[in-house]
Specification:
The structure is a homodimer.
Chain A (H helix, E strand, L loop, with lengths): L17 H11 L4 H8 L4 E2 H8 L4 H13 L3 E6 L5 E6 L1 H32 L1
Antiparallel strand pairs in A: 1-3, 2-3
Chain A binds a DNA duplex (20 and 20 nucleotides) through helix 4.
Pfam family, one (chains A, B): HxlR
Keywords (chains A, B): DNA-binding, Transcription, Transcription regulation
InterPro entries (chains A, B): HTH_HxlR, WH-like_DNA-bd_sf, WH_DNA-bd_sf
Chain lengths: ~120, ~120
DNA sequence: CGGCATCCCGTTGGATACTG
DNA sequence: CAGTATCCAACGGGATGCCG
């Protein structure tokens, strides 16, 4: 616990602040969070619509993911007390900055995924 | 397998290419990979030195992590057949580009971690 | 020194059923 | 519609011991 030193990362991936990054990635780098944030990037969505768009996520995981994002201040949850009930999820400003910070990695992934798979192929044999 | 559509992400977190991102994060966003890449960012390191620097990683996890990074073409493994043996790990050019792509997220984490923890505090009570 | 093999337990997360 | 609750299988990952 005495190891929560996080100076601002000016140097390339400063080792001391890496623990902060690890924490964030533990929260953001799981199987579903990125997908959810990505779908919410373009605007608010209802629970079911979100589940449909993400594709493959279980109710349990969607709920847990959204709850954590809400607690972290990444998304807002808006309940319309109608019948049937309606709940909208939307990125907060913090969420938007996260999405922006994710972009370079997204581009890197798109650009290098095939190269990585080719590497795996070669190494695998 | 018919869903490997990855157009270049020009739009903010393009949903269709998000699966590529998810794959990459599944590979890169685990508990240790970022830390290892971060430590290797400044130059090559030996196995034990790497384990010491990362701190808290078990031999098993360090070995598995390095193996996957090697297979993916992110790091190189160089064996010096001396006695006792010596093995150096180093980022490849691809690894360097990954590190660069990780920087914005690293900065976001450093900048917003406290805010997130404050949010959790409020929401938790 | 730099690993690999094995055991084992805690967590993750899917499937299913139920509720306001 | 938008969840909650429970069960259970799969996986991650630490500890330990052995080897070239």
């Amino acid at each position: 616990m005495s190891e929560t030193n996080i100076s601002v990362p000016l140097a390339p991936l400063p080792p001391r602040s890496c623990k902060g990054l690890t924490d964030v990635l533990a929260s953001v780098g799981d199987k579903w969070t990125i997908r959810v944030v990505g779908e919410l990037a373009r605007g608010s969505l209802r629970y079911n619509e979100l589940q449909r768009r993400v594709g493959g996520i279980s109710q349990r995981m969607l709920t847990l993911t959204l709850k954590r994002l809400e607690v972290d201040g990444i998304v807002t949850r808006t309940l319309f007390p109608s019948v049937p009930p309606r709940v909208d999820y939307e990125l907060t400003e913090l969420g938007q900055t996260l999405r922006a910070a994710l972009l370079p990695l997204s581009q890197w992934a798109a650009k290098n995924r095939q190269a990585i798979e080719a590497n795996r192929e070669r190494a695998g044999k």
